[in-house]
Amino acid sequence: KMTQQMRDLQLAQARKPPGPSSPNAAKRLYRNLSGKFRVNYTSFDEGSLAGRGEKEKLRKSYLFQSNAALFEAVELQDLDRVQELLKQYSPEELDLNTPNSEGLLPLDIAIMTNNAPIARALLQAGGKESPHFVSLESRSLHLSTLVREAEQRVNELMAQVVNEAPNTDCSEKEKQLKAWEWRYRLYKRMKAGFEHARVPDAPTNVHLSVASSSSVQVTFWEPLSINSAVVTKYKVEWSCSPTFSPCLGEAVIDKLKNLHFTIRGLVSGTAYYVQVSAYNMKGWGPPQASVPPFAIPSNWREYDGRAPRRRGQAEALDHLLGQVKTVHQHCVCHEPCKNQPQSRKHSVSKSLKHLFHPSSKFLKTLKRGLYLTAIFYKDDNILVTHEDQIPVVEIDDTYSCLLMQDFLWFTKVSCMWDEILWLRQCVTVSQSSCSCILQTRFKMLLAISQMQGLLGIQDLGQVFFEPVKDKQGNILIVTLKEVKTNQTFESVRWVPICKLQTSRKSVSSPEEPTALDTLLISIQDKLAYHQRSSHALSPGLYLGYLKLCSAVDQIRVLVPERLPNILCHVKIRSNPNISREEWEWLQKMASVEEPIPAEPEAETSQNHLFQELQVAIKELMTLVNIPLQEAKDFRLYSQEVLDFGGQVSFLLLLPPSDDVCTAPGQNNPYTPRSGFLTLPLQIFELGEER
């Protein structure tokens, strides 16, 4: 009887499935088990350790099921499932490069069944070929062994199914037979795919360019024909000889997301030849020489030995500021000073007012005067006072006309938020003799200090490029700052922007809104401007269009709304470097009388730049709404290449000298389409520095 019970138990266990068939099933199993066995182990250390051990075992089991699911998806050629698993798990969690019991990796199965989409997905995720395949012979022998063993297993199971009487064991054997028959067909398909494949063709569009004075960059595309086998890596070789004898170096590229490579550590002024070849499971294909066939590492500055414009400027300014601070340390004006009020009566009344309102010094309403407001935002929320008002402090209640010089001075001060106290100490205001401009600027510093003190933060952000005005004589200087961390502020709280806009009760008419109402209505536009002005260009060489317009008290520059800290522009290429040869050709082009010189020789870097410039100029003229025939008198700025941090560089396209800056009242027949604005030149320069 006991023997019969043991047999029944073994039979019941044999009927149970081996485990979850997918990561989702394993996840449900993990969730159910963790729910059933969840207990409070806070006072039992051993129990807590045991619980963590069980969870770790379940986690490993879960990841094992994920690895099995990936192999199954690749074998079934289920691209959607493969992409889902690669997105859901990291390569380490999937054991992407750990061979299975047959010595195969997911990438091996994909390339030997010639499933290019799955193979590319695995390659981009970091998949590799099995290290067991050190040669063509070893791969062929391994596949033959897999096919032979699968065929042998199929024959054994078929004999057992035919000879045994129908029962439960026989049904299980039939399932095993079907599984092995499917695997036998898979291995035969993989073996046939390997035997049918040939080495890949050479890569296409192999382009060589000069990246710097000591490096060149090669870019390339996939071969036109991969010959029934997916390319899994590329080899870049370089030499000083066109025959590549000797070869100075080589690099294997197995990360195929971006097909380019930069060869560094080269000698400036030396010609280097480059070729690229592709690899699949049958070996390396023929190399493809680059176009142009060689490149000479150099930079445009080597043409006349010019040093970078900004070299040492930041250090020199810091040193100069330090000297100024040292001079003022022992000066009388270094002593803390207070703003001298215009009348004693006014001072007393304001002091009494603040005694009765000690909790807040932010303003609720505006009178005729100059004010400072600070907008701090995070996602869709904005900082407001406890009275649900945007933080506003007074600069000068007797100042109703903001001069552009004062506003531009304020924007420069915004680069020194941490130095406001020192600036206040340096600016002396005497009641007997003091200019109106100096008094206004001193009051600006006082207002900044007051805002910083009320909010409990020094950095008030970036100044919006123009103040907000109304017909009642109110002027608002607006600063904007995005908060990306959980920062603590004083006397304020967060509220949704939409709630603030709908809950605020306007005290003005729609025809003549106050400056605060105007600010609230346009706040989304100002936040969008602030976010876009902090975006950076991707590395590359750009063609910029310089267009100015003048007014009575300022010069403004045309910029795109989507990137207001950069001139109107189009991208020429991804390589920001201009070589010495390219710059020499540009100098010759600028010196001739014809607008477009003869096309340079084919298969040279100058010819490639010439073609790129033609495309970029057409695109830029379309962008700024200027007919191409009107651009025949435009010229390239040939004094220098504008360099921004080594990763972004600009060539400037200039209108005729008489049209670079449009004077007030001058007619401009070609106005840019929507999507552009004009910034004060000083504001643009500050934004560019940021």
From TrEMBL:
> InterPro entries in the record, alphabetically?
ANKFN1, Ankyrin_rpt-contain_sf, FN3_dom, FN3_sf, Ig-like_fold
Fibronectin type-III domain residues are 202-299
Q: Where is this region: Disordered?
A: 1-26
Coiled-coil spans are: none
CC per GO annotation: spindle
Q: Which domain of life is it from?
A: Eukaryota
Q: Which CDD domains match?
A: FN3
The record ties this protein, via SMART domains, to: FN3
- What parts of the sequence cross the membrane? none
Kindly provide the name given to this protein in its UniProt entry.
ANKF1 protein
